[in-house]
Amino acid sequence: MRKFLALVVMLACGQAWAGSGSMEVGGTQPAEVQRVVVAGLGSIDYQPLFEAVSEPGETLDAFVIRVAPRLVAYSDTTGFEACGVLASNGDRFGLAVGTNRSHVACASFRNKVPAGMVSTAETVHSHGKGAARLNRNDLRFLGLSEDARSHRMFGTLHGQDRFRFSERDLAGEAGYLATPHGVVHHNGGGQTRAVMP
Fold first, then answer.
1. Which of 32, 70, 112, 118 is the S-S candidate for 26 at Cβ 3.0 to 4.6 Å?
2. Using CA atoms, how far apart are residues 72 and 53, in angstroms rounded to an integer?
3. Beta bridge partners of 95
4. Cβ pair 103, 161 in contact under 8 A
């Protein structure tokens, strides 16, 4: 019976990821996958997932805590990172979350924010889980050629730490990491803190 259920789940998931490669995220259907050019990387996939706007009077930390489970759910289901740049219109905060369909990184775009808002330069992202086969987007982020995908050494990726920033994250701008147990923030200078409601 377990084998049968596992097969049904695999087939159902395969159907959801086949074709457009999209899945429902928090009740909304993500947009189609686009190809975007990122300086130093070349052409990679980008798929908008969802937008969220804070409630009136909601703090930035509270807003991130509220939307973090949607990023985690996407990463847990697909293994891909999800990310976005936080934005504000002076009264509220917003976030346009997308993915590069990569297991190892997610490029954030300061111009991809909710309408009427401007980037705060802080980001939010989530890490995927489990082992995965490297794809062309992973190879670009890792600086490897397409030929590396077939090489045994680079064939399988064993996931990132879902609870901590990577060294690459900490070397970048300030931002938040959505984890299965809450949210962590780093200030861009290497200091981290657990985000409390």
1. 70
2. 18
3. 52, 86
4. no
- 8-state DSSP, 33: P
Q: What is the mean pLDDT of each run of 10 residues along the chain (197 residues)?
A: 30 28 48 87 91 97 98 94 96 96 90 95 91 84 71 60 88 93 93 92
**How far is residue 147's CA from residue 140's CA, in Å, rounded to a whole number?**
11
Q: Where are the domains of the chain?
A: 30-195
Instruction: Report which of 66, 16, 27 is spatially closest to residue 49, judged by C-alpha positions.
Output: 27
Q: What are phi and psi of 74, to 5 degrees?
A: -65, -50
Which residue type is seen at 160?
Q
Instruction: Report residue 13 as tokens.
Output: 């998931």
d(C-alpha 8, C-alpha 138), whole Å: 28
Q: Quote the pTM value.
A: 0.79
Cα-based distances in Å from 66 to 48, 58, 115: 19, 10, 20
